[in-house]
Amino acid sequence: MLFKRLENEFALQRKYIGHGNAIRRFRKSIMYAEKEVLTPDEQVLSSIAVSAAPEFHKQMHGLLIATNMRLLFVTSSRHYGDFFEVLPYYAIERLTMRRHRKTEIILRFKRMDKCYVAAFIDERLSTFRQAVRQQIENSKDESHIS
C-alpha cells in the first residue's frame, strides 16, 4: 500500500516538476491540483515549480500549470492553506523571462504584471514557455474568429 502510494507520488512528480527534483515542498500543491483544481476534460500541457514573487508572499511555493483551457497558479501549504488562481490565456499580453540572480517568469496583462520565480532551471522551463506562448496565440486567434 505504501509502496503504491509512493509510486503514484513519484509519477505525479515527474508529470508536474520533472524527474529528480525534490517533491516535499510541492507535494501538497500537486495533490490539490489533481484532486480539486483540474477538471476531468482538462489536459496538462506543461508545468513548472515556482514561488510567488516576494512582494506577494515570501514563502508561497506552488506550480504554474499550463492546460489546454487555462493557465493556473496552484499552491497548498499548512501555513496559508489551499489557493489557486486562474490566469486566462486571452488576458495575457505576453510572457517574458528575465534572469538576475534568479529566473523570473513575467506575465504581462493590460494593467499589471505578475511575477513568479522558477524553482528549477532545466529544459521544462523552455517547454513551459513554448506551451504558454502557443496557448496565448491560440486564444488570440479564437477571439478574432468569434
Task: Give an overview of the whole structure.
It is a single chain. With 146 residues, this protein is an alpha+beta fold. The protein has a single domain, classed as PH-domain like (Roll). 34% of the residues lie in helices and 34% in strands. It has 3 helices and 7 strands, in the order H-H-E-E-E-E-E-E-E-H. It has a 7-stranded antiparallel β-sheet. Strand 1 and strand 2 form a beta hairpin. The longest helix is centred in the last third of the chain and has 23 residues. The radius of gyration is 15 Å and the shape is globular. It starts with a helix and ends with a helix. The mean pLDDT is 87.
Please give a quick description of this structure.
This protein is 34% helix and 34% strand. It contains three helices and seven strands, in the order ααβββββββα. The radius of gyration is 15 Å and the shape is globular.
Features:
146 residues; alpha+beta; PH-domain like; 7-stranded antiparallel beta sheet; 3 helices; 7 strands; 34% strand; globular
Structural class: alpha+beta
Estimated share of beta-strand residues: 25-35%
Gross CATH architecture: Roll
Give the strand line-up of the largest sheet.
Answer: 4-3-2-1-7-6-5
Annotate the secondary structure layout.
Elements lengths: L1 H15 L10 H11 L6 E9 L8 E7 L3 E7 L3 E7 L6 E7 L1 E7 L4 E6 L4 H23 L1
Antiparallel strand pairs: 1-2, 1-7, 2-3, 3-4, 5-6, 6-7
Protein name: YokE-like PH domain-containing protein
Organism: Caryophanon latum
InterPro entries: YokE-like_PH
